[in-house]
Write a structure and sequence with these properties.
Blueprint lengths: L5 H18 L1 H20 L8 H14 L4 E6 L3 E6 L13 H16 L4 E7 L8 E7 L6
Antiparallel strand pairs: 1-2, 2-4, 3-4
Helix pairs in contact: 1-2, 2-4
Length: 146
């Protein structure tokens, strides 16, 4: 694994801080989400099968590794993915925004882009809260079809 790409992530951190200072937190989060979506859309491309948990883990893991994030997927099956960050992508934003708000700016897009609708996530651990990793448990919603 490569070392965390500090220049890459520091640019995002500084962008968020400037947006927050100029426009307030809600607007900064909205704009940051758009920035993240545009960048991730290009980074992920279209060479994956949408809706496949193993494709999510492969594509996301490969991209995260490319920017120096240590991530793990201790569980990947058709209905559940456990996605762990062992490297904090945005340590410079700790204390400037709630972790769940920041995580939503990129996690919602990753899930929608690679898995589609019908998947949700819950954060069960977070580095900012003193945990050993940030852990997002992504699950497929159960259908009520007969």
């Amino acid at each position: 694994m490569q070392q965390r790409n500090n220049a890459f992530f520091n640019l995002f951190e500084n962008t968020f801080l400037v947006l927050k200072e100029e426009f307030g937190e809600d607007e900064a989060l909205r704009l940051f989400r758009i920035i993240m979506e545009n960048g991730l859309k290009t980074a992920y491309g279209n060479e994956f099968t949408k809706g496949k948990a193993e494709e999510f883990a492969h594509v996301v893991g490969e991209r995260d590794d490319a920017v120096g994030l240590e991530v793990a997927f201790p569980k990947v099956d058709d209905d559940k993915i456990i996605y762990q960050f062992h490297t904090d992508p945005f340590p410079g934003l700790k204390g400037h925004v709630a972790p769940e708000k920041l995580d939503a700016t990129y996690l919602n897009f990753k899930i929608d882009r690679l898995l589609g609708t019908g998947w949700t996530y819950e954060t069960t651990k977070h580095l900012w809260l003193g945990d050993n990793c940030s852990e997002h448990v992504i699950v497929r919603s159960k259908s009520n079809d007969c």
